[in-house]
Design goal:
This protein has about 300 residues and is of the alpha/beta class. The chain is about 40% helix and about 25% strand. It folds into 3 domains: about 70 residues, Winged helix-like DNA-binding domain superfamily/Winged helix DNA-binding domain (Arc Repressor Mutant, subunit A, Orthogonal Bundle), CATH 1.10.10; about 100 residues, D-Maltodextrin-Binding Protein, domain 2 (3-Layer(aba) Sandwich), CATH 3.40.190; about 100 residues, D-Maltodextrin-Binding Protein, domain 2, CATH 3.40.190. A hairpin with a 6-residue loop joins β1 and β2. The N and C termini lie far apart (about 45 Å). Belongs to the LysR transcriptional regulatory family.
Length: about 300
């Protein structure tokens, strides 16, 4: 049987259509990734990849292997996860993948509800493991069965590559991104959004962050003069930069509402500049551990 990691390599290549992007996703160099795909082709005894065109596609043999590989990787991941979901002392473990800002805010609140509100799912003897990172890596964790649940942002500018046939979701919350500026001594915005006026310094996000794609989609059509100044890999850092008066940033209303109410920050642009988004909780359709199933059911019932 082929090494499981080689099957995961094929899945990454099919998902990205690029040797370079797939290598990044698998955390190996481009040449090393190419050698691993060739090793899989040698094992299969047939070419699996059409390399002449971009994006890269799979041959008929590659597509056939991909279908089986996806099933094998998911099933092995689920079995592995069920075995490892009981710690050394026999405690049940709930494993959750999410972004750093969500882990600090919405996910932390959700875990607290599971711990303290009836029906109490996270009772004595249970544990929670949080895995944070970029969305593409977290999706892979869910696909490989390394986590029970994935909590992430959803917006038309994003694409969560999870098949509806194998995964389902519920919406945990809705929020909106709002452009904000530090308030001056008179309570007015230090920077404003002006059509053709003086450019305001822009605080935006790096390419690996989901918010970069959401905000980037809006910036492509905005009429306002904005000059990129700070690029951040976290919402918390962007929030801090705005609070220090370094520029304008689109930030979640749930993060800045209190600052705006007390006059530290000022929301700009009105409703036309707000960007609505969802926070979703994903899971495999296959049965999870008893603890994960209980957490999912309790969350769904509270939203009903």
């Amino acid at each position: 049987m082929a090494d499981l990691k080689l099957l995961e390599d094929l899945m990454a290549l099919a998902r990205t259509g690029s040797f370079v992007r797939a290598a990044e996703l698998r955390h190996v160099t481009h040449p090393a990734f190419g050698r691993r795909i060739r090793a899989l082709e040698a094992w299969a005894g047939a070419p699996l990849v059409e390399r002449q065109h971009l994006p890269v596609t799979l041959t008929a043999q590659g597509e056939a292997l991909l279908k089986t590989a996806t099933q094998v990787v998911e099933q092995m991941g689920l079995v592995r996860h069920r075995i490892r979901s009981s710690g050394a002392g026999g405690e049940a473990v709930l494993r959750i993948a999410t972004g750093r800002s969500l882990a600090r805010t919405l996910v932390a609140d959700w875990i607290a509800r599971l711990r303290h509100r009836a029906p109490k799912v996270l009772t004595e003897g249970t544990q929670v493991e949080l895995f944070t990172g970029q969305a593409k890596d977290l999706v892979v964790r869910l696909e490989q069965g390394k986590v029970d649940l994935l909590c992430c942002y959803e917006h038309p500018a994003l694409s969560v590559p999870l098949s509806p046939a194998r995964y389902r979701y519920m919406t945990l919350a809705t929020d909106k991104l709002v452009p904000v500026s530090q308030a001056d001594a008179r309570g007015r915005a230090r920077y404003v959004l002006e059509d053709g006026g003086q450019a305001a310094p822009l605080i935006t996000y790096t390419g690996g962050l989901a918010m970069e794609r959401i905000v980037g989609d809006r910036l492509e059509t905005t009429p306002y003069a904005l000059t990129p100044f700070v690029r951040s890999d976290s919402l918390d850092a962007a929030h801090g930069a705005v609070a220090k008066g370094l520029g304008v940033a689109w930030l979640p209303w749930s993060m800045v509402a209190a600052d705006c109410r007390r006059g530290a920050l000022v929301a700009l642009g009105g409703r036309s500049e707000e960007i609505a988004f969802e926070v979703r909780l994903y899971r495999p359709r296959a049965r999870l551990t008893d603890l994960a199933e209980a957490a999912w059911e309790a969350t769904a019932n509270r939203k009903a």
